[in-house]
Design a protein that fits this description.
Helix content is about 30%, strand content about 20%. By secondary structure, it is α/β, with parallel strands linked by helices.
Length: about 475
């Protein structure tokens, strides 16, 4: 009898070892103490994204649409298979009255569960397919310096080309017919005022036959119409794709994803936006159409340096010919202040310059990981005038590397229109034709600010007319 009991106990112990409970970050329980419903990310034991990536790379596809569609199909199929039972369990609880929503991160084979309660957390914790439950974290939206505000009507609805647009020599490219026609710019930010006088004509969702589907996503609440309660995203969108002299690529079309709120950027929303840009969906996150993906994505956000949390998305973007442009940060001009994801190898990092072609006082400085040169280039970021979220005719002045990055996103659009080719080739055109800026005599990791490249402005200030 004792022998039989021992066998049963041993069997139960083995079963427990075979199906251990998932690791749950302590912050999840702290969050539940403060709120009845929270958001969590589910990591799976059998995610095995490597085999999915290997199948994709084995295809050796050539066309952009084929790459976009195959990458999504293979990775999403892998995610669907691995996540099937957990999704089924969650669907049953939702039908039974739970309020949660799901966002599948098909690139990394993870699952975001929004508005989940304590009971469901325990259900997930004990599911044999779940490896870990990860808490939502937040990155502060880059602080920008506010300047003057204007109204277009004060100037008879006409203004001059803004200094940053002129500084990067965009008007000279426009004169040659290079305005970004045929190129789509994605903007992951606080949203955008799509009715603004200088943005409405370039918002792809306003094109004939278009709707907000595949052109707008707000993962935090599935809002069906673009909006912006902060203004940061509207301003950045204007500098990339605005008309009226505020944008570098006024012939391009823009789409948006709200990865940031008024003050903070949720890592869950940013990850969802990264997946959306690789294969756009309707405003509810369903019915994907990968051929609607943008050619370049502006990211005027970032956190502390050295983080790799966005690298799988950067890989998927690069595979599909999507340029990821990132502000390098506003932590000042001391060495080793470059932020992530802008400091990562597949991100095109952007520093900021002032109108006198000097490094902006707030612009963060490299190097990146393994002493890599960061940022790659610099662009106008001090006292930049662009669209305001407060009125369809409003303009405002902001300063930050957030303002520099969209100048580069617009420049990538011009280069891609003029020359086609790969993202790598477009980036090389911008770095090889960049101009020297006025050096402040500083040095980081043995690279003087006046050298090319260096860790203050990379290869220098962009010259889009020469690059295109």
């Amino acid at each position: 009898m004792k022998y039989q009991i021992a066998l049963v106990v041993f069997g139960l112990a083995c079963l427990a070892l075979a199906n251990p409970t998932a690791r749950v970050e302590e912050e999840i329980y702290n969050n539940l103490d403060e709120s009845e419903l929270i958001n969590v990310l589910v990591k799976f034991r059998r995610a095995d994204t490597k085999s999915a990536w290997d199948r994709f790379y084995g295809l050796k596809l050539k066309t952009r649409d084929a790459i976009l569609n195959a990458q999504h199909a293979i990775l999403k199929n892998q995610a669907d298979v691995v996540q099937a039972d957990v999704v089924a369990v969650l669907e049953k609880t939702r039908i039974a009255g739970k309020a949660h929503r799901l966002d599948q991160l098909w690139i990394s084979n993870e699952l975001i569960v929004r508005d989940v309660d304590r009971e469901t957390i325990e259900l997930l914790r004990n599911h044999p397919d779940v490896e870990a439950l990860i808490a939502e974290t937040f990155i502060p939206l880059e602080q920008v310096e506010e300047g003057e505000t204007y109204d277009i009507r004060e100037f008879n609805n006409t203004i001059q080309n803004q200094w940053g647009v002129v500084n990067v020599q965009a008007p000279a490219a426009w004169a040659r017919g290079i305005t970004g026609t045929g190129i789509t710019v994605g903007v992951t930010d606080t949203g955008a005022r799509h009715t603004h006088q200088f943005l409405s004509g370039t918002y792809r969702g306003n094109n004939p036959g278009e709707t907000h589907n595949y052109n707008w996503r707000a993962p935090n609440n599935n809002a069906g119409i673009p909006s912006d309660t902060n203004g940061h995203g509207t301003h950045c969108t204007g500098s990339a794709s605005g008309t009226g002299g505020i944008g570098v690529a006024p012939g391009s079309r823009w789409i948006g994803c709200r990865g940031c709120g008024a003050l903070l950027c949720s890592n869950f929303d940013l990850l969802t936006c990264g997946n959306f840009m690789a294969c756009p969906t309707d405003t509810n996150g369903a019915n994907a159409q990968c051929n609607r993906a943008p050619h370049v994505v502006n990211n005027s956000w970032g956190g502390a340096g050295g983080s790799t949390f966005y690298n799988e998305i950067l890989t998927a973007w690069r595979n599909a010919g999507i340029s990821g442009v990132f502000a390098i940060g506003n932590s000042g001009t001391n060495c080793n202040t470059a932020g992530s994801p802008g400091d990562q190898p597949l991100a095109f990092g952007v520093g900021s310059t002032a109108e006198a072609n000097t490094l902006s006082t707030f612009s963060s400085v490299g190097p990146g990981p393994n002493n890599s040169v960061k940022p790659e280039v610099a662009a106008p970021g001090t006292s930049v005038v662009s669209a305001s979220h407060l009125a369809d005719t409003g303009l405002r002045t902001l300063s930050g590397t957030s303002m520099a990055a969209p100048h580069v996103a617009g420049a990538v659009a011009l280069v891609l229109q003029a020359r086609g080719g790969t993202v790598v080739a477009a980036h090389e055109r911008l770095t090889s034709t960049a101009l020297a800026h006025v050096s402040g005599g500083r040095t980081c990791v043995g690279r003087p600010e006046g050298a090319r490249p260096n860790n203050h402005v990379g290869y220098g200030r962009i010259n889009v007319n020469a690059a295109a």
